[in-house]
From TrEMBL, chain A:
This is 2-methoxy-6-polyprenyl-1,4-benzoquinol methylase, mitochondrial. Keywords: Membrane, Methyltransferase, Mitochondrion, Mitochondrion inner membrane, S-adenosyl-L-methionine, Transferase, Ubiquinone biosynthesis. The gene is COQ5. NCBIfam families: MenG_MenH_UbiE. Component of a multi-subunit COQ enzyme complex, composed of at least COQ3, COQ4, COQ5, COQ6, COQ7 and COQ9. Interacts with PYURF; the interaction is direct, stabilizes COQ5 protein and associates PYURF with COQ enzyme complex. Methyltransferase required for the conversion of 2-polyprenyl-6-methoxy-1,4-benzoquinol (DDMQH2) to 2-polyprenyl-3-methyl-6-methoxy-1,4-benzoquinol (DMQH2). One of its GO terms (cellular component) is extrinsic component of mitochondrial inner membrane. GO terms for biological process: methylation. The lineage of its organism: Eukaryota, Viridiplantae, Streptophyta, Embryophyta, Tracheophyta. Pathway: Cofactor biosynthesis; ubiquinone biosynthesis. Its main location: mitochondrion.
TrEMBL record, chain B:
Membrane-associated protein that warps the membrane surface to access and bind aromatic isoprenes with high specificity, including ubiquinone (CoQ) isoprene intermediates and presents them directly to Coq7, therefore facilitating the Coq7-mediated hydroxylase step. Participates in the biosynthesis of coenzyme Q, also named ubiquinone, an essential lipid-soluble electron transporter for aerobic cellular respiration. Residues 43-56 have a biased composition (Polar residues). InterPro entries: COQ9_C, Ubiq_biosynth_COQ9. The lineage of its organism: Eukaryota, Viridiplantae, Streptophyta, Embryophyta, Tracheophyta. This is Ubiquinone biosynthesis protein. Belongs to the COQ9 family.
Amino acid sequence: MALRMVARNFRSKLLPSFTPAFMLHSHATSFGYKEVPEEEKSKLVGNVFTSVASNYDLMNDLMSAGLHRLWKERLVSKLNPFPGMKHLDVAGGTGDVAFRILESINSVRHKALRDTFEDNLQEETQIYVCDINPNMLNVGKIRAQERGLGEDGSLVWVEGDAEALNFEDGSIDGYTIAFGIRNVTHIEKVLSEAYRVLKKGGRFLCLELSHVENPAFKQFYDYYSFSVIPAIGELVAGDRNSYQYLVESIRKFPSQEKFASLISEAGFQKVEYENLVGGVVAIHSGLKF
Amino acid sequence: MYRTVANRLLRFPAIYRIAGDEFIGKPRTLSPAMSKCSLNFCSTAESPPQQSTSIPLASAGASGSTEEGNRRGEGRRSEARAHCQEEQDRVLDASLLHVPKLGWTEVAMVAGARDVDVSPSIVGGFPRKEAELVEHFMDECLHKLMDIIDSEEDLKNLIPNDRIAKLVRIRLELQVPYISKWPQALSIQAQPANVPNSFKQRAMLVDEIWHACDDEANDIDWYVKRTILGGIYSTSEIYMLTDSSPDFRDTWAFLNGRVRDAFDFKKSIQEAQYLAESISAGMGSSVQGLVNTVLKK
């Protein structure tokens, strides 16, 4: 306890000159292990996702051995959606998270809630799926139709930039970003936008590939990500470089603790995180007041 | 033991503000789970703070002015945290109004959040959901009971067993509005994940009642007394669930009966003790007399 207090104090002393935001705010930004000018990163990331869009979900299943489904389930169960919710899923082009949220709201568990409140509440539910890449959104729209959700008025597909959202202040109940924040140029801008659009009491949840602590597991994980994943990418999607970028960008992403402090610097309260599979992914959450 | 913890939390929040983060926030939060909420980062993975690497740098450049700025920053942060805790309590308070109709459920919490104009998303921010609603209610009741103990003068004029019966009755009366849904609350408290907290809250309650009776025991008696009162409280609570007499008259009669039994039991133990002591004293003196006479010869 004392140690933590000391660490806190020292950190706060440093804050004016040595913020984590300062470090991320350099004019050259990272694209995987490469340093690229800021303006170029979004274009490069755009290229990556345009090239992987068609195989995106298949690749996710292959790379994570299906685990990404469980991670997304966990994210949605932490979000605790409710009927009448206005939700924004950023970087969720293929609709994976949005479909799960919709299913959870429509599930039997929420029958009591629906019966208690007025009937029109169900129709008020709106899930905005926002993605900067139209190719990813198209994949999502097709999948929605396959699932019979094409006509569902609750799903709204929006093409937009996470750093400059096209939503009113305080208009959203929940904000999720799954495997997306790693690819943006300015993390702190995304966070402050998330803070802006959320209502009082609204929650921010972020599912992201993160850092493994356990040294033995880290060995295996590094081998897997640098040797196996690009190979799978080449075999299945015919695109080694995009998947090389993927594993490098994970290593460049701030650690769990640092990202948590970025979130609380954006103004969020009750910032917590949960590691899944020993830190391969982490779910960060914050509450706006 | 719990009394001291409660006292510190209630009356000297300043001490805790210095001693640790966990207790910053609303000073009146009693349950450990609630105080944990106000932690800035609580990771499930219990990793050490990342700032430790920056310590050497910091100690080199720590001047008076940064220290002051730091203190101001800390103050703002803990203020924000206190505000966050306050908002959560406001939601829980509003949710309690829906409990008689909707039960101790997420639905009541969503309804409560809507009432105070907070996004119902906040319900997802309570990891144990309805259990935290029940715990919030238990805390509220404990505060009310402590206020009553401090303000009511005639309590002090009662003899101990009447005083105990009266206090248990006051506490049980606080849950009368929720009596139709109280079995649900008990079942929530009995879930394995919630047992530690509900046990602590009950221990704190029993302790508070004993202290109101000026009990200063610190030997084995301490445990015996608290166990017995805990038993009396819980049985009366359960008796009350099925009591349909006007104003719960049967429950209060039952309660008085059990308190009297407990005091009688204590008396008989004491009597037995005295008897044993006098017997051993009597036997001791005669043995001594025998030895003396043998030695003289």
